[in-house]
Structure prediction request, 239 residues.
Amino acid sequence: MGRGPSIEGRKNAEDAKRAKVFTKLIREITVAARGGADPAANPRLRAAVDKALSANMSKDTVERAVRRGSGADGADDLQEIRYEGYAPGGIAILVDCMTDNAQRAVADVRHALSKHGGSLGTPGSVAFQFARTGEVVVATPDAAAESRAFEAALEAGADDVQAESGLTNVLCAGDQVAAVKAALEKAGFAPERAGVVMRAANRVAIEGEAAETLESLLEWLDELDDVQDVWHNAALPGA
Prediction:
């Protein structure tokens, strides 16, 4: 009879995953802090800090990342780069990187795409299919909760509210995320996620082997140290 992974092995895997998440959050705070070290006056930084604290990052770690990004602890050398390309099935994909080595980043992204039957595109080749959108998601287990979320979101200036499968997705302008999130919290909701996303204008249905290959590609990209976020326009089964 085979033995499953040891408790120590599982803990090591969880620690490694947590470290990778923290690395991405620290990077996000560092870059956001270039726009000002005060979260109250810098919506992007406020969102990044909120996300980090929600992931149980210590305040000391957050503050060090803010100081680095604002230049208080010396300038950082991170670059923000967006790569555009095509995934299996002609799916449009955006890969947002934060890196101190652009040559490494583009080589890794190109390799990941080519290994999965995709290809790297030129700037502007697929970005037009996405829109920068603020998004706040809350759990709404019943019609009454949906109604409360709808009213709070619209009063806060949201552009659209979509409820499905026990979740309500509130869409707004990118700079309105903090206000919408605060309004929903005031109405008694604990947002499951809040931030700015690249939302596809239209979704392309994909299934079978193509869907499996795309999911493998997304996992591969997520493991790359330089990759911060990945956006695509696929409608995956069960998603």
